[in-house]
Amino acid sequence: MNCQTTEDGFHHQCARNASGVRGLWNPIRTTLRAGLLPALLPALLVLSALQPAYAQTEACTTVKACLSQLKYGETRMTRELAAKVLGERGNLAALESLKEALKDDEGEFVRANAAQALGLLRTPKALEPLSEVLANDPRQQVRIRAAMALSSLPLPETVAPLSTALQADPEWAVRATSATSLGVLNRPEAGAALVAPSYVGASSH
Question: What is the pTM of this model?
Fold first, then answer.
């Protein structure tokens, strides 16, 4: 891959070309090892069909610039890319801005990328906003990303929102992603949700 390095060491060309692969790879790799790939396939199909291409959008190259772009970007695409890059940088200074974008931005993929970015920060402070959008966001894509992001937070409290989505979300892809994330967490509290009759029955359709 052809990477161009800026003065702050950020490979912005790599960020454009990666298109979120690095952010999604860790839970997918764990899923492969655990033999859970069939459960994840519906979500992967949704992600591959809907993920926008950023090749023609200039990526911000510093945390400060990305924070400004996330808040004030004139187009949804620039705000989407800012959220994505902030996740790749993994800087906790982006936490509050990402939470705000996840809650309030009108763009579906801005919220989806903000959810993914919060997962990449791997901070317990992301648990509440991710759980909230998993339960309430009207867009399937955002709920899928929130469920995937929660797999990066191996806390006892992470099990409840994923279990609820597994049992109650109307979209199979969201339920499948929630099941996969519970498997990735590999916590004893998740066992009951994964074998619950309502999920077993739903997975047979």
Answer: 0.72
